[in-house]
Amino acid sequence: MQLSRQQRLWITIAVLTGMLLAAMESTVVSTAMPTVIASLGGLARYSWVFSIYLLTSTVSMPIWGKLSDLYGRRSAYLLGISIFLIGSALSGLSQSMNQLIIFRALQGLGAGAIIPLGLTIIGEIYTIQQRAKMQGLFSSVWGIASILGPVLGGFISDNFSWRWVFYINIPFGLLATLVISFSMKNLPIATTKPKIDYAGAISLTALISLLLIVCLESKEISSSLITISLLLICLLLLFAFIYFEKQAVEPILPLSLFQERIFLISSVGNFLLGCVLFGTLSFVPLFMQSVLKSTATEAGKTIMFLLFSWIFSSFISSKLILRFGYRPLVILGMIALVLGNFLLILSINPNSNKYYIYLSIATIGIGMGFATFAILMAVQNQVEHKLLGVVTSSTQFFRNIGGVLGTGILGSMLAFSLAKITAQASNSQIRQELTQIVDNPSIIFDSSTRLNLSFESINIFAQGLSNSLHSIFTICFFLSLLGLLTALLIPSSQSNEFKEISLLEQEKVNTSH
Are residues 335 and 385 located together in one domain of the fold? Predict the structure, then answer.
């Protein structure tokens, strides 16, 4: 069955709408959270509103990818976006913080389908040339979400009820659902009853959930023995998952994929990219505000530089990949990532010029744009069509896992370093003030509370934080070097390889699913 140009257009609009909703969700909610806490209370569980969404969306990604391979893209996508909309509606109806956390978990479960399956659908209905040309448009979704999200969240909270932060998803989500439902209704579906890998799904969910909890809540785990015990359980779950996948007829994440050089390298590369990206997004704004005493707006500019350069390089790479192939672009992206992190190391000190930091961040964004786009295109064109869903979702999955694990480990290192600085303070008053700052860094951003702190405490904290962040970004630099080494291991590709594949791709879509 061949889709008409009009059908492709409507499907593209629907997928873009769904991706924008899912990408914007965290930024919209973050702005509205102070109002939510004022209404529901539960400040102690504040972080779980974000953590649970990240956890369930990440854990479910490979499962949604496999379900789409088994039951078809349309059915899996419609189920995922329906769960997302139900979670959004229930989140808006929440009467307590515990209810909001539970419904956010449901919302995240649906969000785990929207982005990877959206990319899979686009990879399926377009040829490689067409898909490459559209990549700039899809990359812009992240920039729009990051810029529009906080503004929209603040506007809704100030002028309407915070509940509309969640309700606003419903009309746009229903529109995307209707378009996908009708535009893709004639696509073929599986004719044989698939055998679901329940054991693999359960063990993978338990493994990733526990691993994310250890990373996200490491500060709340008081005993190192408990942490070690939880990590050992994770190791046992990993062995169990490998065993179940070897036995399964339709494994959630086929281990045979890791025998494919391109998939294995891309998985490692995405993991490292996630570590560097999330580390940058998490700690650069902190440095700008705490050490350079920049405003929140100026700190936010750093992220905008990253996003805009990411969008720009994705658009450029969509033009270059048809001519040069994916390998040179991945290598170019990783080189830019190494250079950006090296510039960032040179910029991290109390006397930094913020424009050097903007340059460093923009260079990192260029690297992310080239590398992530080329890796996605590579894996989509090097695997069997029946595995398109699982490999596409895996690219986002490994990047998220790298981001969470990397941020958790780097955050623990920062907390340890700051605690050491506090313990070495010269007198009890300085030590007490440093403890207050470490426990609640926001007091150093607020001019009214900042006046209550001594000049010496502020300087000690700024210098200590600068040194700690310098170490963190040095680690990110070495991680980016590892990423470059993985890129060099990617097999060579030629532009004519893409052209040959693209001529056969539409026929493959029409004859198999």
Answer: yes
Confirm if 254 and 69 have CB atoms less than 8 A apart: no
For the CA atoms of 216, 220, 223, 229, the dihedral, rounded to the nearest 10 degrees, stands at -30
The CATH number given to whatever domain includes residue 159 is: 1.20.1250.20
Q: Which residues of 435-468 are buried (b: 16+ CB within 10 A; e: fewer)?
A: bbbbeeeeebbeeeeeeebeeebbebbbebbbbb
Q: Is residue 176 over pLDDT 80?
A: yes
DSSP code per residue over 356-394: HHHHHHHHHHHHHHHHHHHHHHHHHHSS-GGGHHHHHHH
Shared-domain flag, residues 205 and 164: no
203 and 191 within one domain: no
* Within-domain flag for 444: no
Domain interval for residue 3: 1-195
Which range, 15-24, 266-275, 370-379, 398-407, is most confident? 266-275
What's the pLDDT score for residue 431?
76
Q: Residue 233's pLDDT is what?
A: 92
Amino acid 509: pLDDT:
40
Residue 449 lies in a domain: no
More confident residue, 282 or 300: 282
